[in-house]
Specification:
alpha/beta; 7-stranded mixed β-sheet; 228 residues; single chain; binds S-adenosylmethionine; two-stranded antiparallel sheet; 6 helices; 29% helix; 9 strands
């Protein structure tokens, strides 16, 4: 099937799933409350797959960019020293804060509303930045569709244009992407912005293949300080 048609069908289906819930779901043992306007961490494969590959230590400071329900922030908080979560969707911020409070993690996890790095102090540096960007083509028509649609990969370009200055020297970005949105072309864009990648995981489903990449700025690393 033509990629554009396949993407439109998936967006239509996801909008239906979002409406009918359930709006209280369990992922890796934690319960998340959401609304129809917040990305459901149970219904789509990506949240659990990303969460399963979070590998942080007790000294790490983590940024969860585009937190949705807070699923990755809350998973990372199990081991990390501190977690900051950001989302552009005020309803996602509301539910992520609620889910953080329900786990008693408000001292460790702070949730902020804003466009990418805009709510962060430029002095903030992170050991790991978790990022599951939207990847369908189109024009977002609702607040929720910002979770799905990134026209011309503009968000990815903006993110990788800015992310270097928020990483510690040994830090990296853990990003999920899909074959349905041409993962090879997104890697080329990211390389052109001065990043290297390695593959952390790949999972094939009926509709697409998901990839988790570890990305590091090309220039700033000295090999002995890099995290493997
Ligand atoms: C695919 S969802 C992933 C949600 C969550 N990380 C998960 O794994 O379940 C992408 C999230 O990014 C958020 N987002 C989209 N554009 C953003 C931006 N410019 N700044 C911050 N967050 C954004 C969306 O609102 C949505 O919650």
């Amino acid at each position: 099937m033509h990629t554009k048609l396949r993407q439109s069908l998936i967006i239509w289906l996801i909008n239906k799933i979002q409406k009918f819930g359930p709006h209280r779901v369990k992922v890796l043992g934690n319960t998340y409350e959401i609304s129809e306007n917040v990305f459901n961490p149970k219904r789509y494969y990506t949240s659990k797959l990303m969460a399963e590959h979070i590998n942080v230590t007790s000294s790490d400071k983590i940024l969860d960019m585009g937190t949705g329900s807070g699923v990755l922030a809350i998973t990372a908080a199990k081991h990390a020293r501190e977690v900051v979560a950001v989302d552009i969707n005020p309803e996602a911020v509301h539910y992520a804060k609620k889910n953080v409070r329900a786990r008693g993690l408000e001292k460790k996890v702070s949730v902020m509303e804003g466009d990418l790095f805009s709510p962060l102090d430029p002095e903030h540096k992170f050991d790991v930045i978790l990022f599951t960007p939207p990847y369908f083509e189109g024009t977002p028509k609702t607040l929720f569709e910002y979770a799905l649609i990134d026209p011309d990969k503009l968000l990815v370009k903006k993110f990788f244009g800015a992310a270097k200055k928020y990483l510690t020297p040994r830090g990296y970005v853990q990003m999920m992407y899909s074959s349905i949105a041409d993962n090879e072309s997104v890697l080329q864009i990211i390389h052109d912005l001065g990043w290297d990648h390695s593959l952390m995981a790949r999972r094939r489903t009926l509709t697409e293949t998901f990839f988790i990449y570890k990305l590091r700025p090309v220039t700033t690393l000295c090999p002995s300080s890099a995290r493997v």
